[in-house]
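Sequence of DNA polymerase IV (Acetobacter musti).
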Amino acid sequence: MSESRPQPLMRRILHIDMDAFYASIEQRDDPALRGRPVAVGRGEARGVVAAASYEARRYGVRSAMPSTTALRRCPDLIFVPPRFTVYRAVSAQIHTVFARYTPIIQPLSLDEAYLDITDHLGAFGSATAIAEAIRADILAETGLTASAGVSYNRFLAKLASDQNKPDGLFVITPKQGPAFAASLPVARFHGIGPATARKMHALGIHTGADLRTWPVEALRAHFGSAAEFYAGISRGIDHRPVNPDRQRKSIGTETTFDRDIASQDELRAELKAIATKLWASCDKRQLTGRTVTVKVKYNDFRIVTRARSLTTPVTGEPELLLSGTAALETLFPLARPVRLLGLTLSGLLAQDQAAERTQLALFDCC
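Predicted 3D structure, token representation.
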């Protein structure tokens, strides 16, 4: 792959990422928490950190960390319960700000999004000026800081937003992009997870510069269909557009238990409650799907999943529970007691569309 290969369109992409979003909201709303190490989540023995303030991060506290580990690292850590209704309301404020500058917005979560402003520079004249204006609006209207990355593609814009956190702005120009990507460890590349990074390290690939020395054909032998993407991002190339109509891929819910569970009957009962909650979420969004996945986290924190793909979309909670139970049964006898149980529905489509497909399938069978 040639390093000089041009982008099909020199886009202007922003990645806006709120700084320690949940924890910053808690510190904003409670002055007693400002400047102190804060974790959003459950502070008891079975709890998990959902988010950490920058004061807590200095001690190595991170999201998804068990609360007991977080407290060992930071004995003065203050836990506050999450308030998702508040977080969603602030997220709506932030997205209202985005919409003033461009209609091409791809949310990634409550607190981050890509914005394509290629054709929406207006009187600002530059992507950097718009990024500064958005950050200023967010601060004025929410009292919170955001970091921004500015570049010519999604991959580099997201890397850029991490560069000067918190409350920072970083720009990667087309001239800088290839060298910037080459200088980074592959473990920092968005799109390369921990398992893939370990596999690359075993092959002697540690940086973007190492990655670009590999022909696409050789990468494909190890990484399959992702090879072209990996080769591209190592050169600062990413052709993916900002997609404001990106469809949700899955809906899931999970429960961390107050005590480890080893009983098959208890886990079935817990799965029923989870299925009820998940189908209510699907109904609210008028979505269903064809693949049901059970997630189990054992008490040694090892995670296993089991999935069942159906020929027709799930029609209701009973079918969701039936498929989930069938997937769960494959894990018995249990390797260890269970700490967490989750259920996810993927291969999503609208419920009315699913009903039409089911009717067609029945007709075809007749």
